[in-house]
Write a structure and sequence with these properties.
Distance between the termini: 15 Å
Largest sheet: 6 strands, parallel
Low-confidence stretches: 250-264
Bound molecules: NADP nicotinamide-adenine-dinucleotide phosphate
Helix content: 25-40%
Mean pLDDT: 92
Shape: elongated
Radius of gyration: 22 Å
């Protein structure tokens, strides 16, 4: 058995720890988006594979028997590639994801389907906005230059974002309620724009928004191809045990030794 974890999330790191603890052989993969990725207790590679074909080739070359897609729910391309590459390589795939956040009493959310719809939702008068969407799609908000954007990023941007009024704060989760309340108050934030990432690491801003009565524009997740999906590390470990056990016998084979007929 050899597992490849597609990482970049807290859950992926937790799974890497669980595999290492159990001495289950595995590799960890980062896209290479942040300058100093969290060290992992598994051999780690960094960078794209070169699309579906590149990933399928990697799986075969490294004798990967199980693929775990533990990437962020908004990492749409790699998740699509993982489904296709696992199929090409003939190995099982599971996605380890977090359930999406759902609004609670006292929340004032506007759910939108994508970044463009979030931009469209900002047609009102100038506001001070916490734009907590990472750095990849900031340019889309240049279409709404009247707002002041507070950008929370892991690394300083290489080039200044094309937003005439903005400020960058460098920080990485997990974030705390006290910290996010202080941030929102200090910068006089009037609205939050974020992705429905789910999980606990970035939920503090939503609790803070509820406490302060701030509206939230919630960008919902992209649709992904059908795949097996679980929400806990334990469920992945159970799946691995199940997937690597000898398959239950078909109707016609003898009960005594199901493997004999398959020549395994
Ligand atoms: P993406 O748009 O789905 O992927 C773009 C390309 O990056 C993929 O086609 C693949 O390149 C490469 N890639 C992505 N994840 C990879 C991984 N774990 N290992 C190796 N290559 C990977 O992904 P993204 O939205 O840029 O996210 C990149 C990474 O940041 C992911 O690991 C994700 O978990 C993490 N992340 C993303 C977000 C977000 O909001 N999107 C938030 C937090 C963390 P090739 O086609 O060349 O293989």
């Amino acid at each position: 058995m050899k597992i490849l974890i597609l990482g970049g999330t807290t859950e992926a790191s937790a799974l890497a720890g669980a595999l290492a603890e159990r001495s289950i052989p595995g590799l960890f993969s980062y896209a290479g988006r942040v300058a100093t990725p969290k060290p992992q207790p598994l051999p780690t590679r960094v960078g794209g594979f070169g699309g579906v074909a590149g990933l399928a080739e990697f799986l075969a070359e490294h004798g990967i028997t199980h693929l775990v897609d533990a990437t962020h729910p908004f990492a749409e391309r790699i998740s699509q590639n993982a489904v296709a590459a696992a199929r090409l390589a003939g190995i099982p795939l599971i996605a380890l994801t977090r359930p999406p956040w759902v609004p609670q009493a006292g929340d004032n959310w506007t759910s939108v389907a994508n970044i463009e719809a979030a931009v469209a939702a900002l047609s009102g008068p100038p506001e001070r906005i916490l734009l907590a969407i990472g750095r990849q799609h900031l340019a889309a908000f240049a279409a709404r230059p009247r707002h002041h954007y507070l950008l929370r990023l892991v690394d300083a941007p290489e080039a200044p974002p094309p937003l005439p009024r903005h400020r960058v704060v460098l920080d990485r989760g997990p974030f705390t309620l006290a910290g996010d309340l202080a941030l929102l108050r200090e910068h006089g934030i009037q609205r939050i724009i974020c992705k429905n990432a789910g999980g606990s690491g970035a939920i503090a801003k939503l609790t803070a928004a509820r406490e302060l009565g701030l509206p939230v524009v919630m960008i919902e997740r992209p649709a992904l191809p059908e795949r097996r999906e679980v929400h806990s590390v334990e469920a992945v470990i159970t799946w691995l045990a199940h997937e690597s056990a000898p398959e239950p016998d078909s109707e016609s084979a003898p009960e005594s030794d199901p493997r004999t007929d398959r020549g395994v």
